[in-house]
Fold:
Amino acid sequence: MAASPKVPKARAYSSPLDPMDLYDVRSLLSDEERMVQDAVGRLVDEKVLPVIQGHFENHTFPRELVADLAALGLLGSSLEGYGCAGMNAVCYGLICQELERGDSGVRSFVSVQSSLCMYPIHSYGSEEQKQRYLPRMAKGELIGCFGLTEPHGGSDPANMKTHAKRRGKDWVINGAKMWITNGAIADLCVLWAMTDEGIRGFIVDKGTAGFTAPEIKHKFSLRASVTSALFFDNVVVPEANVLPGVVGLKGPLSCLTQARYGITWGVIGAAQACLRQLIDYTKDRELFGRALAANQAIQIRLAEMSRKITLSQLLSLQLGRLKDAGKMTPAQVSLAKWNNARAAIEVARDARDMLGGAGISAEYVPIRHMLNLESVITYEGTETIHQLTIGRELTGINAF
Structure:
């Protein structure tokens, strides 16, 4: 009988590089930026990761984390004054990256609170509105939601059907919004509605007559996040609740630019979580007499994931530096959101596949991140919208 061929043992190799940061992006950060990343990373490791699987499975938002997020200054972190931390844009990006390493739902909560609700009040609100809402929102005592997307479609906000009409010193609002993060738990809504003057922003407080926010159930994505519909049936809002500083699409689109910026960083964290777990799994899993990680096909796929993550890191860091210098443009945000969200979902899908049967279990993170990223790649501008934005920059022709 012929002897069985011996399977060669894998040659050991010790790398000086961090598998999650092959280009040593961390060395390009300031001491403050590294400190912020480390603090949020500890929060994710100690408070988010132990509970998030259960919340995802049970379709519940981990509201108990809000106080911890607020205590670190993560709500409205880039805003100045009014109890906000006043961090730079790169710090905010790192916050999003670490939070989404935990779960997209947690990052989405912070993104909506900070970029879509606190930002427009800070940028376009009256001093009375800023004093009334921002300090309590920074403390997590008030939760906000952002009412822009409507049931008939979200990619063309200029075509919104929700409208507000003057009645004496008040406004009467009618319409509906859809796919609204935080809606059912929000204490206030920053609502965008069509008026005779153009699109205006309104602050609608919870409990206002005619305003309801039922939660959307049966989601298979962002299950650890609250998603709602908003309905406005002759809702009366006083003039004091109108954002005075902006009229037109500039208002909501500027908010989306802020949120999209954070997303470009956040999805990196999701991809890193998948790659980290997959590296450990392929080293421990043995088939045909050797670790999975010793196979060329596996290493090539891992390398491809690392390439995508590294390119995303460099895009977002440069985007953050441009933002802090006041030079960032919406088109640059679109490029990074398109590239990084696409890269992250491809990493998550491939990681799920490489886990084999284990890939469908919530005990492993890729399927949770994969399902979440199906939403992230769609919201705040679909991939097609961002591609057309870049096409317009290249050609000077609007093809929307």
About this structure: Residues 144-241 form a domain with the Butyryl-CoA Dehydrogenase, subunit A; domain 2 fold (CATH 2.40.110.10).
